[in-house]
Design a protein that fits this description.
CATH superfamily of the largest domain in chain A: Tetracycline Repressor, domain 2
Number of domains of chain A: 2
Largest sheet of chain A: none
Helix content of chain A: 55-70%
CATH topology of the largest domain in chain A: Tetracycline Repressor, domain 2
Structural class of chain A: mainly alpha
Distance between the termini of chain A: 38 Å
Oligomer: homotetramer
Largest interface: C-D, 50 and 50 residues
CATH class of the largest domain in chain A: Mainly Alpha
Order of helices and strands of chain A: HHHHHHHHH
DNA sequence: GATGAATGAGACTTCATTCAT
DNA sequence: TATGAATGAAGTCTCATTCAT
């Protein structure tokens, strides 16, 4: 479901110097880790390049600015999320099963795998200029529309009771899941998927229309 | 339930020179607004004092450091939250009613009134040194224990089905609510309290044991 | 005629640290010398502050930016020049005497006294942003109008033959004089005033030997 | 009188790959335009190669350094000027006519045609190292000697009155003309040649109306 | 002949903080 | 209580130049 980043396999030549693309990726990896932990503004370009093992010059050869780096991270992450959301939306599933899979696979699974990316996406967004954010906003909005549609579909089909605006519920579900990156320990006893199942149960049993009530 | 900040009432004396406490509060207000919007690291002391209408000297007269300011904000906010949580916990309420009130009054109401404080509390915590965070952590942990206890109580009393570890559920509820500071418009058509009621309904109908199932 | 810059006289206190205004002037003096010799872009703020004996922080305390410094230099110089031009224009002099005094006192005398200021004014103007230049341009234009008026007055009164547009002639006179900052040695045998007298003679009477004179 | 730069005629071969000499010339043209407008230090090699449509590698293939480029510009320009000066000096002309032609054709005509080259020659000279300037200085000195000789010749022959050291007058004439690159609009109503004629008249005959003429 | 990734120094500027007044 | 000049480190970014390909 989720893809492996940067395969970087099967290089034939033994390069004396690093491949350019490798340098670029090293910089991105370094920055994701640091931005995720310390935030955009508390992370200096110096530390990013130091961790990546290159010089500042190399950094500015590959990226226009520190903000450019941030934009790229956002873009990569939202692309990934949007793709995952579309898969669930396109599958022919009953509303409750669709919402469950959305929560588990789209919202929660990345919490374990892309902790830093998520932290960056949610906390550092405000440091993107309006122009840099424009593209990302569009994709993010589409992602949100996916979530809303999943809820609305359930209501329309009579599977969910009409508890309130689908948008408010969708955002609640996203929030409940997303929030967990604040406290969930990826190496702890409860996996992200487990937690997703639990949240799906709580939410669905609340939404699902009961026979007798 | 929530207290009015900055009493500042009934000052009789000369207003030409500002009261020391007034200066201090002006600095805090300025900093909350800026930290909330731009974050701790993207906000300089210069801008804080400029917005407060005082000089840097005054700032360092009232606060030891920029971090000291951040610590104070955290402290004030968690104190406020903890007090509110204790009120709900102490009231003699049925579990579902207690949880509803916790969500509406403790978790959601501040979203409208203390947007900046919340943003600071959730996003800038990582910039507090361990020592500065120690006190706050204790109170924050107690706040979380309050939420957990509310859930656990419901389970113990048989009002809630045992959907999973109370802690995981409590954190889910907190997340669902807290997340809304990211998108809820305080001047929009849906009030924070309304949203709280909605979330309480969703969560409770999920947790409440059904007669027939 | 020309004013002494920065009197700085009669300070009573013996300040342990430098007076702020003194620091500011030291920075300006340092910068004029360096900008004059090496140009704006080839002069770093580091060298300016080093020569002035202060730190970069002090520099940015007194000036908004490096460009601000440049703007200030331009402003001070054109103010000085404009004042001198107005004096000549206001004096009740015959046209040829007025032009002679303009050349000698307004155009040439500063070449000896304000070599660096002149170099900056003529060579570094292009590095002022449009906004920063706006004020200065107005004054510079007025200065040019002074020169043009002196020529035009001579033509109108019949003292000068109408050799061509007064503006073109005025600019020629300015150019002939101003250019000398490129080569005239202030410590050489020919003083700036002497050269001014010579140029005034040439312009007023020409080189060609007249049959009858 | 002045020569066409960059013959570049009659290329028969494939235009897909640029001729080396073409690349070199493109770099020079780009640099002249940028150095002329922004100055040597405010122009980066990056911008030069970008405007020329080549890469940095190509630049350093053709030129040793950025300074090398500047040296080459100076060299080309002074060669051109010197050749023009020699033509006038060699022609068998009366002193006043010789001076007039020098002003019009040697000093003024290039103002319209080689605005950037002139700007570079006069303003960026200081950024040439002593060694790089040595050759150019020799030629420039010879050019100045040409101008001085034209004046001296007139004095010696009794055509000009001995108004002062020929060198000072020659420099005044050069300055009056050269200065015009600062303000003369090549596309304006007054051509560079027209202005040259006017200046020649003023210098030769002066402004003061003679009683008997 | 030409590419473009990489360097390392240095550019301008802002930072949190101190301290004499 | 408050000022504001000054510090020194660190910030982001650009520079001219090199070199393996």
């Amino acid at each position: 479901m989720t893809t492996n980043r940067a395969p970087t396999v099967a290089r034939a030549r033994r390069p004396a110097v690093r491949e350019p693309e490798e340098t670029r990726q090293a910089l991105l990896d370094s920055a994701v880790a640091l931005f995720g932990r310390d935030g955009f503004h508390a992370t200096s370009v110096s530390r990013v390049v130091e961790r990546a093992g290159v010089t500042k010059g190399a950094f500015y050869h590959h990226f226009d600015s520190k903000e450019d780096l941030l934009r790229e991270m956002h873009d990569a992450f939202i692309d990934h999320q949007l793709a995952a959301a579309r898969v669930v939306l396109a599958a022919d599933l009953a509303p409750d099963e669709a919402l469950r899979r959305f929560i588990v696979e789209v919202l929660m699974e990345p919490v374990a795998r892309f902790k830093d990316e998520i932290a960056v996406f949610f906390q550092e967004r405000r440091f993107l200029s309006e122009e840099a954010f424009a593209d990302i906003k569009e994709k993010r909005d589409e992602f949100e529309r996916c979530a809303i549609e999943l809820v609305q579909r359930g209501i329309d089909e009579g599977a969910f009771r009409d508890a309130g605006a689908a948008r408010l519920i969708a955002f609640g579900v996203i929030g409940m899941s997303a929030w967990s990156y604040n406290w969930l320990d990826p190496d702890g006893p409860v996996s992200a998927r487990d937690l997703g199942e639990l949240y799906a149960n709580v939410v669905l049993d609340g939404l699902r229309r009961q026979e007798t009530r």
